[in-house]
Design a protein that fits this description.
Structural class: mainly beta
Distance between the termini: 52 Å
Order of helices and strands: EEEEEEEEEEE
Helix content: under 10%
Strand content: 35-45%
Shape: elongated
Oligomer: single chain
Number of strands: 11
Length: 172
């Protein structure tokens, strides 16, 4: 499948906008694409909008049918989840201005290297203690010293997919 207007002699720019869950500045297997993000294609000066698209359910976007030239791809950060609040641009294809990339296209060139990644500026955390609750009241008290080390704790998302695991330390 190809975007509207795409031919073997015209250029194509695109790829994926994703959630960089582990914040390692790379698109890793299992990291989800972000659906519904608006992406705009501008002229070389970045001043005139040539096309607008929205990412699909996998976070993919494409601009096809492009002539030889230089273009600027810009992510509308207000269309990111939560309006982009609390997200940091961790992957930017050209390493320049955040959430935008300049791309030069030759005749018939396909450039699918325009990935943009976003991570939580302050990652969420879940923590707790696993212990022997001797009086079975669900509250950890100073007299309950039976902290359980070496227990594997698994975290699943709402769809039942394993997100992360951790092993309790000596303090449970």
């Amino acid at each position: 499948y190809a975007p509207a207007g795409q031919t073997p002699t015209t250029g194509l720019i695109g790829d994926t906008i994703f959630l960089d869950r582990n914040g390692n500045n790379a698109f890793d297997p299992g990291e989800p694409g972000l659906e519904g993000v608006t992406v705009r294609l501008y002229n070389a000066a970045g001043t005139i909008v040539l096309a607008t698209t929205v990412t699909d359910e996998n976070g993919n976007y494409y601009f096809g049918g492009l002539a030889v030239g230089t273009y600027v791809v810009k992510v509308d950060t207000a269309s990111l989840p939560n309006g982009g609040v609390g997200l940091t641009n961790t992957v930017d294809p050209d390493g320049g201005s955040a959430s935008q990339s300049t791309v030069a296209l030759a005749a018939g060139q396909v450039n699918l290297l325009q990935d943009f990644g976003y991570a939580a500026a302050t990652p969420n955390t879940i923590s707790g203690t696993i212990w022997n609750d001797v009086n079975a009241d669900g509250t950890l008290q100073g007299s309950e010293t039976g902290r359980l080390a070496g227990v594997t704790v698994a975290l699943y998302d709402a769809d039942g997919n394993l997100v992360a695991t951790a092993i309790t330390d000596a303090n449970g």
